[in-house]
Amino acid sequence: MKRFNDNKKIGIIGIIGNLFLFVIKIIVGFISNSQSMIADSFNSAGDIFASLMTWIGNKISSVPNDEDHNFGHGKAEYLFSMFISISMMAVALKMLYDSFVSIIFNNKLVFSWNLIIVCIITILAKYFLYCYSKFLYKKNNNLLVKANMVDHRNDCVITLFTTIAILLTKINIFWFDGLVGIGISILIFIVGLGIFRESYNVLMDSSIDNESKKKILKIIKKEKSVKRIGSLYSIPIGSKYIIVITIFLDGSMSTTSSHKITDKLEKNILAKVNKVEQVVVHVEPFVCEK
């Protein structure tokens, strides 16, 4: 439950912080006719949506299992991460179009120190949000938080280039402003596509990673009573997996003895492999072929 409470905090803080940044960016951007600042403001609008989806997705995924959802609601985390990624790509395409129009028609922004002040505020705020999100992601391994963490990090870089574009207008270099808008758009689209693919893989029941699978097999192989390992299946439930394994034991072994072995394996796997939520070990009799 603490995991979900931590993730809820990042959603609420993100909504408040990004709403503040959106308001000051959009006002100063239109006053100064800065395409890169306007693009940055739309990015903040997307961040508000992302933070809102983080809060809602976290709330749903924290609901425990019930009769209709035997394995809980953990996949909501990935469903809402997909919503975030789609919104990011949509915003990126709109920003890309506007930036090309700005370059083609040679739109010129009006330099203002207010633009620089907004950029500095944005970089500081986003760096704080990035550090906090990174701390929670390492602690809880939540894809929703990861999506926000990556977005905050990119925003720091994006706003830095926006600052450079604004400063260059002091020496009458206006085209760089539109170019930064294009760069921001492409970067946001790439990040959104990456999050979409990661969410899609989990929702389509992709297998556990090879490193975790090797750890599981290593634990089983250490058990001398296991004559052979059969199938190993993994079912994603939120950020973790249910593991279903078939092992072969001596056919003459008693039911009590085989159960002790399976219990031991289940406990060892749960203790040593972080991504595993539940282990089901199925036993088959081993027959030595002559």
Give the arrangement of secondary structure elements:
Layout: H1 2-32, H2 35-61, H3 76-104, H4 113-140, H5 143-168, H6 175-203, H7 210-222, E1 228-237, E2 240-250, H8 255-272, E3 276-286
Parallel strand pairs: 2-3
Antiparallel strand pairs: 1-2
Structure write-up:
By secondary structure, the chain is mainly α. It has 2 domains: about 1-205, Cation efflux protein transmembrane domain (Alpha-lytic protease prodomain-like); about 210-285, Alpha-Beta Plaits. About 70% of the residues lie in helices and about 10% in strands. It has helices at about 1-30, 35-60, 75-105, 115-140, 145-170, 175-205, 210-220, 255-270, and strands spanning about 230-235, 240-250, 275-285. The protein has a 3-stranded mixed sheet with strand order 1-2-3, covered by helices on one side. Helix 8 (about 255-270) links the parallel strand 2 and strand 3. The protein is elongated, with a radius of gyration of 25 Å.
